Amino acid sequence: MAFMEALLQVSSTGTLICCSLLLLAVYLLFFRSQRDENEPPGPKPLPLLGNLLMLDVNKPYLSLCEMAKQFGTVFTVYFGPKKVVVLAGYKTVKQALVNHADEFGDREIMPLFHDFTKGHGIIFANGESWRELRRFALTNLRDFGMGKKKIEEKIIEETCHLQEEFEKFEGKPFETTQLMNYAASSVICSIVYGRRFEYTDPQLRNMVDRANESIQLSGTASVQLYNMFPFLGPWLKNYRLLMKNLALDIKEVSELVNDLRQTLNPQDLRGFVDSFLLHMQNAEESGEKNSLFNQQNLIFSVGNLFAAGTDTTSTTLRWGLLLMAKYPHVQDRVQEEIDQVIGGRQPVTEDRKKLPYTDAVIHETQRFANIAPMSIPHMTSCDVHFNGHFIKKGTCIFPLLMSVLYDEDEWETPHTFNPEQFLDKQGRFVKRDAFLPFSAGRRSCPGEGLARMELFLFFASLLQHFRFTPPPGVSEDDLDLTPVVGFTLNPIPHKLCAVKRSQNEI
Fold first, then answer.
1. Where residue 4 falls among pLDDT bands split at 50, 70, 90?
2. Is the pLDDT of residue 20 over 50?
3. Are 458 and 159 in contact (CB under 8 A)?
4. Among candidates 91, 358, 113, 141, which has minimal Cα distance to 230?
5. What is the pTM assigned to this prediction?
């Protein structure tokens, strides 16, 4: 018995020594990588954990902004064992994404995003597949949406439906989330599928609810942990929920696509899906093998467009209405300008040029809301010498958009809501170079033109017809601007009153 106890003690000691040596080896490997000549500086990482103990996992963008003050505008940080180079500040981010667009133009496909798409679609793809599908998406967004009078008419029609829904509350408090999501989703559906969905349609509601849940779950600490340690996936509830939603999304999109396939008319294309199906048909007829126009790329491209086209626009609009209730003096000026220039007629896109203050408020909402603070990760396509540093090919890059939109060298009052930052002394609208909410370079948002049109038409129409106030018993000071952390930053759940303005006010 004594012999066995001694043997076990020796065995345990040996195991402990081996583990210690392994951890030491990992740490030395990390430390050496951190100290490679000319590589970006950064905090020393711990074995396996990297710099996690220095990061607020729920709000990593805030931690990274603080690190930039210590380590500079190009620095290295470890998310667990994952090495990331962070780019901070307008000048650095622009130089990388615009002046070195090719070198910083690949997409870092993290484990979760790989599980989502397996490299298919537009957002989480690289190489020829990404180039061809992005080119196709831009062409079709123009053909069926951006810059077309037809899509302006569809958005205006949607503003009317949204106003009707707001009126049903008769000035009583309500949560704006679902209605704003339904409105934005219906617009993107009209471009993708060639038809709008009624807000009561269970199919639209299910798609929107799942998209909202997935976007929120994607930003949780447990899912970020999965990206660092993928083997944990089966044990993480949020990861399992995301995979369940993904399966339902694929099923739903497949059914909608199959319905359109049955009634496809090459002489009368209704939207993005019809155009893609026609390319698939032509590839099959010509015997083209390994065509990028296949069922998987179609399903995931549609999913990309739906999620991106719904979340960013609706979230920004919700921030806009919340800010109007929070700052009634700003709302006063917006409504006074709309009343003077437009009166009671329907706002149109051309009115933007005549409404500089309203335009400034929309831009400042996008800047202040900062809904994509870390952008979507990039990856270097080759070895890069950048700002005196050497960055290896295949390195994950975080363009810290928050550091651009809140850059103290570029904005007069970066941490407060101030539309005056977009106006000159004569009250004319002024473009700002550091306004990059859609990112920049090769990976900038392909739907920027559509989003800008939607934001203006929805915002101007709603402010024309309604006065937005806090619920009874709630003061403007009580309205909380703390964001809910997800893949994008949403306003904290809240209710507003949309009080219909009288014709005398307009």
1. very low
2. no
3. yes
4. 113
5. 0.90
